């Protein structure tokens, strides 16, 4: 058996995608719509308060294209908290005007491919901050799930540690060139959801998603071993932008 890569886990993640029932929303009374929006604004304030105490983080974006209209990305200490947030939203008035589009359950993950040997990662404040990250409020989000291939001669899980480490180093070097332009959060989902990882990227300039993902396609770890699910891309929602969207 090949050596298992050790992983560190941080906050649990729920990516909750919703579509808006525009017909019902347009048909609703102005007063009901206002109550629905106020409720949503108060959730946004609650999420912000959690972030202020570093006990979780939430990102809220509108989604372009027909796969969904909204995405909430919640990071919390436990799966129970994620379930509570999801259920609270489901019981809200606004939720009556939405239907579920997609969801993804995972946990923030760092693997040890690049870790210097003999150090205790839990004593490293940079690592702790990456395991429990406050999500950036950058203009755009990109989310997609992925697997590492297990097919014939292209089986990631049968490769030796050194070979995987060499490839991950090359992957990391490409990624580093996007420092400051793209922030990536890798969440592990083996045992939690249908793919092995969720990839969440944030950028101010959405073209940087395309450039990064394209460049990685030529790198062996993605070219040979990456299998990808659907891509979701979105625009940051502030209270003001949400108001405009729902006007
Ligand atoms: O954690 C680190 O920064 C060390 C290097 C590193 C690891 C171990 C790293 C760097 N990644 C790691 C692990 Mn990554 N990453 C992806 C995708 O679309 C594609 O082709 C792949 C999707 C992107 C865009 C991306 C970006 N990475 C992983 C893993 C776990 C693999 C495993 O355990 O087998 C996956 C699935 C994955 C996928 N990666 C970076 C980036 C970027 C931008 C970096 C540089 C980060 C930085 O230096 O700040």
Head-to-tail CA distance between termini:
58 Å
| Proportion of residues in extended strands | 25-35%
Identify low-pLDDT runs. none
Going across the biggest sheet, name each strand in turn: 1-3-2-11-5-9-8-4
Query: Please, what is the average pLDDT?
Result: 97
Order of helices and strands: EHHEEHEHEEEHEEHHEEH
Number of strands: 11
| Overall 3D shape | elongated
Helical proportion? Answer: 25-40%
| Radius of gyration of CA atoms, rounded to a whole number | 19 Å
**Biggest sheet, in brief?**
8 strands, antiparallel, barrel
Work out the helix count. Answer: 8
Catalogue the ligands.
Answer: ligand 76R
* SSE-based structural type: alpha+beta
What does this entry look like structurally?
The active site is at 144. One of its GO terms (molecular function) is peroxidase activity. Its cofactor is Fe-coproporphyrin III. Pfam families: Chlor_dismutase. The chain has eight helices and eleven strands. With 247 residues, it is an alpha+beta fold. The strands form two sheets. It has an eight-stranded antiparallel beta barrel, surrounded by four helices. The chain has a two-stranded antiparallel sheet with strand order 6-7. Ligand 76R binds at residues 5, 110-111, 113-114, 146, 148, 168, 171-172, 175-176, 178-179, 182, 184, 186, 197, 199, 212-213, 216, 222, 226.
């Amino acid at each position: 058996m090949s050596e298992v890569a050790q992983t560190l886990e941080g906050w649990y993640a729920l990516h909750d995608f919703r579509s808006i029932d525009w017909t019902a929303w347009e048909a609703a009374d102005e007063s009901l719509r206002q109550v629905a929006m106020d409720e949503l604004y108060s959730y946004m304030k609650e999420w912000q308060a959690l972030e202020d105490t570093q006990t979780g983080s939430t990102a809220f974006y509108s989604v372009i294209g027909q796969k969904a209209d909204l995405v909430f990305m919640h990071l919390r200490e436990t799966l129970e908290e994620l379930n509570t947030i999801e259920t609270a939203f489901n019981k809200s008035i606004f939720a009556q005007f939405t239907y579920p589009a997609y969801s993804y359950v995972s946990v923030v993950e760092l693997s040890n491919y690049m870790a210097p040997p003999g150090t205790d990662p839990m004593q490293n404040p940079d690592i702790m901050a990456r395991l429990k990250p406050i999500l950036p409020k950058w203009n755009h989000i990109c989310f997609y799930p992925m697997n590492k291939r297990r097919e014939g001669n292209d089986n990631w899980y049968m490769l030796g540690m050194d070979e995987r480490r060499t490839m991950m180093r090359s992957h990391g070097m490409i990624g580093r060139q996007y420092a400051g332009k793209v922030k990536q959060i890798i969440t592990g989902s083996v045992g939690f959801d249908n793919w092995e990882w969720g990839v969440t990227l944030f950028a101010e300039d959405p073209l940087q998603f395309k450039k990064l993902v394209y460049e990685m396609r030529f790198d062996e770890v993605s070219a040979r071993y990456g299998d990808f699910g659907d891509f979701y891309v979105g625009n940051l929602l502030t209270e003001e932008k949400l108001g405009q969207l729902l006007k």
